[in-house]
Amino acid sequence: MTQTLLRGRILTFHREPEAPDDTGAFDYIEDGALLIEGGRIAASGAFAEVQERAQDAQIVDHRPHLLMAGFIDAHIHFPQLQIMASWGSQLLDWLNGYTFPAEADFADAQHARAMARRFCDMLAAHGTTTAVAFCSSHRASAEALFAEAQSRDMRMIAGKTMMDRNAPEAVLDTPQSAYDDSKALIAEWHGTGRLSYAITPRFAITSTPEQLEIAGALVGEHPGCFVQTHLSENHDEIAYTAELYPDARDYLDVYEARGLLGPRTLLGHAIHLRPREIDAIAATGAHPVFCPTSNLFLGSGLFDDAGLRASKIHSGIATDVGAGTSFSMLQTLNEGYKILQLQNQTLHTLRAFHWITRGNAEMLGMADRIGTLAAGTEADIVVLDSRATPAMALRMERAETLAEELFALQMMGDDRAVVQTYIAGRAQKADG
Ligand code: GUN
Ligand code: ZN
What we know:
The protein is an alpha/beta fold. The protein has two domains: about 5-70 and about 370-425, Roll (Urease, subunit C, domain 1); about 70-365, Metal-dependent hydrolases (TIM Barrel, Alpha-Beta Barrel), CATH 3.20.20.140. The chain has helices at about 45-55, 90-105, 110-125, 140-150, 175-190, 210-220, 235-245, 250-255, 275-285, 290-295, 305-310, 330-340, 350-365, 390-395, 400-410; strands at about 5-15, 25-35, 40-45, 60-70, 70-75, 130-135, 155-160, 160, 195-200, 225-230, 265-270, 285-290, 315, 380-385, 420-425, 425. β9 (about 195-200), α6 and β10 (about 225-230) form a beta-alpha-beta unit. It is globular, with a radius of gyration of 21 Å. The structure holds guanine and zinc ion.
């Protein structure tokens, strides 16, 4: 079997760093190497030692760049890649004005296939090797994304969005068609290669109670699938949800009462939560997902990271493209840092890089496969250049520690800092 040996500075996490000086949480090797064989990391460590295990490996010398586990984006909308940066409104108007019309185009399988290619290219260009994605309500859009990811051996968790009211006809399904299409997609793709299915009711406003009941039935029939939806992103959204579900104790209860909450449930945004909702999220093991660039762009609010952590809730972090304004998980950390600053909370850089790699992987129950550079795991790797732009190079002239370098990458980096991305051991950039 052909072997590839990547040489460079290696950074990988064993657990979440508790403080900026928690060096026991990670391995950093100045002259490190990863031996890749059959899409997996066969060995990881000091170059001199790993080289001994390599027979006739092709050596790719990435020095002086940093090698880390590929980034994981825990909430992103595949059919929204062309409506990023659409001006001027908060959530509900933004959905009606820009999002639903763009998603209507994904009924066309040819358009969906072309966009799936561009979407996966964008992820790889930004160092993201795993995504949890909403497709449109059309089965063809999910077919296109799964097929594209499969052709690249890319780890992808995705689902056809379920939505049967309060949107234009062109993006609506019905409870029955949502059930049938989700079932067919699960049968075809869930567990195929590196693909997983997420049962995907969009949010309370666009699903009738009948459809959410059916989503709950799907969860019961397919406990290995993920569930993804949105929760408490915006005050008007919360008020409208209360009108539509007058019997619910609160927004979360709309989902909770229908069996949609569990350790595989991802709740996009989860900004404006009541104490009961926080307790119920903790009790069910569900996961809020922090979407910093989106929350600022739509003026949605400030995610209470410290409050949720105090309740032992494990949150994810994500771009939420296309309300998110960047595919970059580095830029996501940049804006996330500022959101916590506004609340007198802290996001130190080691925790930040842990979050977009092993942290999100753990949330997905996949830390044995992705999110680290440990031997035996899948060879999803990003190569980062901390001096990628003139401004970054200037900053780096005064950086003396690894933490300083990482923080500069987090605050100033984007796809220009991504020299190469490996997905299942395969280089994605021709000039990397
Ligand atoms: N809530 C329901 N759908 C969406 C969406 O597409 N984007 C965001 N940000 N919030 C939502
Ligand atoms: Zn979203």
